[in-house]
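Re-run requested by the PI after the first attempt was lost when the workstation crashed. Everything re-entered from the original request form. Ligand of interest: zinc ion.
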Amino acid sequence: MRRVAVIGVGVTKFGKHERTSAELFAEAAADALLDAEIPPSAVQALYYGNVVGGETEHQLHTGPQAASILGIPAIPTTRFETACASSHAAFRHAVMEIAAGVSDVVLVGGAERVLNVPTPESTEYFAYASDAGWEQTLGLTFPGVFALIARAHMQKYGTTEEQMAAVAVKNHKHGTLNPKAQFQKEISVEQVLKSAYVADPLKLLDCCPFSDGGAAVVLASEEVARTRTRPVWVLAAAAASDWMLLGDKRDLARVPATERAAAAAYRQAGLGPADVDVVELHDCFTIAEIVATEGLGLFEPGAGGRAAAEGRTSLGGAIPVNPSGGLKAKGHPIGATGAAQIAEIVTQLRGAAGPRQVADARVGLTHTLGGNTATVLVSLFGRD
Amino acid sequence: MTEPAITLQTFFERARDGRLTAVRCRKCGELAIPPRQFCPACGERAWEAVRLSGEGAIESFTVIRVAPRAHAADAPYAIAVVKLTEGVSLLGRIVDISLEKIAIGVPVRFRPLVRGSQTAVGFGPA
Ligand SMILES: [Zn+2]
């Protein structure tokens, strides 16, 4: 298999936009191509993530639509849907296309538009990632899924609402250092604890926002990447799945798909958790970050809440997590999130992250989770 | 072609009548809801339908306060993962137990929630 590198990244500002998801993707993709110093004509395929376009924009077939708006309609395009992990799944398949020698330059990205519909409507569309016959009929929501996980984690390990709040406070603080982030203001533990319950024990400020936005990365074979000034190498791209129904999960306090995808990624790269310098992970809810840091092996099961409260995952801490502000503060346009996380890690490994730079970051990890924890992608990145 | 021991449709038809059903692997004894083709434990396709007691205890729960459109009129409402006495777990709506009395370990009993042609899993007081 050939080595694969990321040679260009682009991300729109996250938040409310008056543009279609295809337009948002095209803006990010144009920035990524400029960053890669590569002409659009060099792109041989597009792997694209978009989740609720069918609902919020009445738009299917978003792959060719995105490529058309970008101005490169003739290349093969494929849309991926693995709930919130869609563009990370797209990334993994693009890596395999280049590694297999099929293409030399592939564009990966995603976009989402949801703020054009009211919250009860978007809440319903996001719940489509849970089982229609067994779970949607109960009125289960996306915060509800993680509330069930949070309660189980609190019961098993003694994790507290204050520890969860510490994750939100930390990611908001990081978000103030990221001009592309949806939220640019700090919040306090007290504010989180006083915010209204959405799905007990999760409160409004434990939850990431609904967001519009796009993200893109340009991947290249080693041969092409060597002609660029600052390639970042893909050391691993791994995926795992789990049972669809929450009732089938044997231990709600853990996410087995994260543990399996992480084990596969570390094996591919010949690395372990101790080798990772910076992490962008899926903090759709504060408890999700805590469980993910445990599943990735950064902390022992049950130790993630305490670690967050002690500042070990803050910028300047032992293992900085979500320097971009994470989904919590940067925002979570679901189809774009995986690609946006990769863009942040590439920026960090280039040493170009400005005030949120993790000092001397050499190995970075991205972790993206789909909906009800049934899909997880984990990738590892390194620099020369 | 092998006839499945139970389909989703027959599960919910029986549930509507108050009978909670699972499938058990004749080869290794694995119990499952919902039915599937292959046994995840031993890989065989030798299921038989078994009736469950419907009794269990709350494993985890949440109170949904921001609901999807179709359920907005019900909010706030509780959803729980219930571990049944036979060992399998099932997600369901908690009914007829006041929200502040819901806790991990509270015993509950299955009851169908019927809304028009749709049946969902509910649990009420044991
Ligand atoms: Zn079996």
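Saved to the shared folder this time. Chain B has a mean pLDDT of 94.
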